Amino acid sequence: MKVPSNEPAIRLVMLPKYTNPDGDIFGGIILSMIDEAAAVEAQRQAHHRYVTVSMDSVQFHLPVQVGDIVSLWCQTIKIGRTSIKIHVDVLAHPRCSDEEHKVTEATVTMVAIDMDRNAVPVFGV
Ligand SMILES: CC(C)(COP(=O)(O)OP(=O)(O)OC[C@H]1O[C@@H](n2cnc3c(N)ncnc32)[C@H](O)[C@@H]1OP(=O)(O)O)[C@@H](O)C(=O)NCCC(=O)NCCS
Questions:
Q1: Is residue 9 helix, strand or coil?
Q2: Atom of ligand 1 nearest to the CA of 54
Q3: How many domains does the chain have?
Q4: Which domain holds residue 40?
Q5: pTM of the complete model
Q6: Residue 124: its pLDDT value, please?
Q7: CATH code at 54?
Q8: Closest ligand 1 atom to Cα of 56
Q9: Within-domain flag for 3
């Protein structure tokens, strides 16, 4: 297992197109970014085609606003035979603040698959 990356898997500014009618960022947008970030982290560990098999322990701590710069930090917590379990922390940096805060976190399990969509070993056979 590689050591945790010293940079976020994804960093993105939150645009108005991501909002709900109340002006907050949709939770589903954050979940989609978590999924993408976990895929980036899985690729960093070992090159494969991956699918998401589960997303657990999702916690929305705080709302995200338009203009926030959102960073997704990944930590691989377990590599099994064919799966990689990754914890993702989502941090938001509001435009008018010097501070970042954790807005969401989740644990994602990605499975390495072959061209027939069968699970394959992450490392070796
Ligand atoms: C992921 C998938 C390939 C697993 O296939 P499978 O034949 O069930 O494979 P297995 O039962 O051997 O499980 C493969 C690995 O996934 C893990 N796994 C299976 N279900 C899991 C779950 N609900 N949560 C966490 N891990 C799970 C197993 O523990 C195993 O890990 P390991 O090899 O590291 O021990 C298959 O279920 C699949 O294609 N699912 C759809 C994925 C998808 O389309 N995702 C996008 C959603 S839009």
A1: coil
A2: 24
A3: 1
A4: 10-113
A5: 0.95
A6: 76
A7: 3.10.129.10
A8: 24
A9: no
